[in-house]
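Hey L., structure's done. Input below.
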Amino acid sequence: MRIFSREPALIIASISAGLSLLVSFGFDGLSAEQAAAIVAVISAVFAAATAAITRPIAPSAFTGLVAAAVALLAAYGLEVSQETVGALNAVILAVLGLLTRGQVAPAVTPTRPTAV
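Output:
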């Protein structure tokens, strides 16, 4: 818990957005559908991690659901490129991460180290 200090939701959303962009821009062999599926899984897994370490769970779970749905919609409902899928998901994760951050708190309150 000390890794995330006092902002676990914001840090996890940032990591998730970065990984989504890496998947979208980093691999030429992936189709838009494959990239979107990977991005959706990343979004869902990181949202579950955020929900596990913050309270209440609902805002974090909603954020993950929206981010995964946008990635899947971009791949299977719209004709967009692999890069657009990653960029859309990164923007959605950034905005929802900032909104979620104000509505949740760490499940365990971090303690400050005492001087010895």
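The helical segments are 8-26, 32-53, 57-76, 82-101. The chain is about 70% helix and 5% strand.

-- N.
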